[in-house]
Q: What sequence folds into this?
């Protein structure tokens, strides 16, 4: 049985190292972790170097390399390890046990690098050779086509699995700041987890709806203004669930295994195979970081990715136009049906039209999703990023979509915002 300090998954396939990464002493703590994982690195004549990546806004990502004499760069990279340390307080947002399950599931389908070990506040996994994309890369045709093909493979072949959570009465942990009265005097609150899991009746839990419900419950409610905001967001989530959770879509019960955080920093352009010199060879990409991956409508995952064409600055004028979205979706549909385990006939253009319209319908929901997330990050994160402003921008996208679809923007005589103008642009 796992000890109080050891994650339950440590008794499974993934090794657990009982150490932590210390941001204030990053080099020393990173070396302690890598020497525990790879003790031979300490005395084999090599030089261990740390390369810091800064593409994310919640986690610390380090590449650990052992530069032994006589090895080529490719050989060094083949042994390199990535260290990812979780941002402070992110366990409030992310289920780390579920993240490990996601990683192992994707490994089974050759869609994730080998997970080598976990430690108290992070994980170690094999380095993927390639180039991390920037937002501008996502708008390049060879890259977006590669993203469409890979995302379709995820959605077609990776099964949606229910949580392996222990019985509610023994595992669920509530919070005194949730604004919910617990049925017991302790922090163990089965009613809270039940409310989260059942937010979208009939849908496998967890899913994108249960994630948003968990986040809304985790919002700070220390003032009347915060309590009002939480209540308004809760009301809006119930509205979204009623309108969207039972819409028809791809996958079993209209859910696919979705990445849910397909920003540029999580897309890796793979190097061409040795000996391949043809410039016409299509690009291939891999996806990293599976902490937000969960069963979701395919339209949510794709519309969420389209929002990332504008980067963290939310440059709405750079989002894909109608023709770009349609071309991406056509590439996706061809790959999706090619990866299914049967020779089912399908009408390509009809499927493209259906998904195009569904993504258009879902276009405002990523703003709601990330807006709630940013409100929490604004209270817990120590990273130098203006989460509060980011929350207002993303929630603003959602409210602008609402005003556009219900006609209230036009009725008030207001100008159409740039994001909605760009989304309606044909080419």
A:
């Amino acid at each position: 049985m796992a000890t109080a300090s050891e994650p339950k998954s440590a008794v499974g396939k993934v090794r657990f190292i009982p150490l932590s990464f210390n941001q204030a002493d990053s080099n020393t703590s990173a070396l302690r972790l890598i020497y525990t994982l790879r003790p031979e690195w300490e005395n084999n004549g090599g030089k261990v170097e740390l390369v810091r990546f800064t593409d994310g806004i919640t986690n610390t990502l380090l590449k650990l390399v052992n530069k032994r004499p006589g090895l080529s760069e490719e050989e060094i990279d083949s042994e390199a390890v990535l260290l990812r340390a979780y941002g402070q307080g992110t366990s409030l947002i992310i289920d780390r046990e579920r993240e490990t399950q996601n990683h192992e599931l994707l490994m089974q389908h050759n869609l994730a690098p080998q997970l080598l070990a976990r430690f108290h506040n992070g994980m170690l996994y094999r380095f993927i050779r390639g180039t991390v994309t920037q937002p501008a890369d996502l708008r390049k045709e060879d890259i977006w086509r590669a993203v469409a093909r890979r995302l379709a493979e995820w959605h077609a072949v990776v099964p949606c699995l229910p949580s392996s959570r222990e019985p509610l009465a023994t595992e669920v942990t509530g919070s005194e700041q949730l604004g919910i009265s617990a049925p017991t005097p302790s922090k163990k609150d089965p009613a809270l987890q039940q409310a989260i899991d059942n937010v979208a009746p009939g849908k496998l839990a967890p899913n994108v709806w249960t994630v948003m419900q968990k986040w809304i419950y985790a919002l700070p409610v220390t003032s009347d203004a915060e309590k009002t905001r939480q209540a308004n967001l809760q009301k809006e989530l119930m509205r979204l669930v009623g309108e969207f959770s039972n819409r028809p879509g791809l996958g079993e019960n209209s859910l696919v295994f979705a990445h849910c955080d397909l920003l540029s920093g999580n897309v890796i352009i793979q190097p061409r195979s040795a000996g391949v010199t043809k410039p016409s060879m299509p690009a291939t990409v891999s996806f990293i970081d599976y902490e937000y991956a969960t069963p979701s409508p395919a339209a949510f995952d794709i519309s969420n990715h389209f929002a990332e064409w504008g980067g963290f600055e939310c440059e709405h004028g750079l989002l894909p136009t109608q023709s770009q979205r349609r071309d991406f979706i056509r590439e996706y549909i061809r790959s999706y049906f090619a990866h299914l385990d049967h020779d089912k006939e399908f009408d390509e253009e009809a499927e493209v039209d259906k998904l195009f319209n569904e993504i258009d319908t879902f276009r405002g929901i990523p703003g709601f999703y990330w807006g709630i997330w940013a409100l929490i990050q604004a209270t817990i994160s120590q990273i130098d990023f203006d989460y509060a402003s980011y929350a207002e921008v993303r929630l603003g996208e959602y409210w602008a979509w609402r005003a556009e679809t219900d006609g209230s923007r036009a009725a008030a005589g207001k100008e159409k915002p740039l994001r909605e103008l760009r989304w309606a642009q044909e080419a």
Observations:
- The mean pLDDT is 88.
